[in-house]
Amino acid sequence: MKIEGTLTDEAILGELGARLAQRRLELQLSQGALAAQAGVSKRTVERVEAGATTQMSSMIRVMRVLGLLERLEALVPEAGPRPMELLKLKGKARKRARTKQKPAEEKPWTWGDES
């Protein structure tokens, strides 16, 4: 199954769990062995593979043992400044985000004595 935006969160977690389970089997690891090497409980590994929610630190530990940690770089690549931002910021790092303000709704001007 391809992971795409139309899937529910539960479906995505289930697919990720199945892929992690397949990788574990490719490496000839039992759930208990993976749990011991990752420093998590066997129940945590079972939950991850079943597609249940888990703490991010547990997922990182499991991925490290499975040799998948480097793939997180592709998941969330390091953001670099765009060339125009470099010119505007003059080499300084950006520290705040600004939301675009909606233009104020213009009402026709009146004297105020109309009834």
TrEMBL record:
CDD domains, from UniProt?
A: HTH_XRE
Listed Pfam families: HTH_31
- Quote the Gene3D superfamilies the UniProt record gives: lambda repressor-like DNA-binding domains
Q: State where composition is biased (Basic residues).
A: 90-101
All copies of the HTH cro/C1-type domain together span: 20-72
Residue ranges for the region (Disordered) are: 90-115
* Domain of life per record: Bacteria
Give GO terms: molecular function aspect only: DNA binding
Annotated protein name in UniProt: Helix-turn-helix domain protein
The organism named in the record is Chlorobium phaeobacteroides (strain DSM 266 / SMG 266 / 2430)
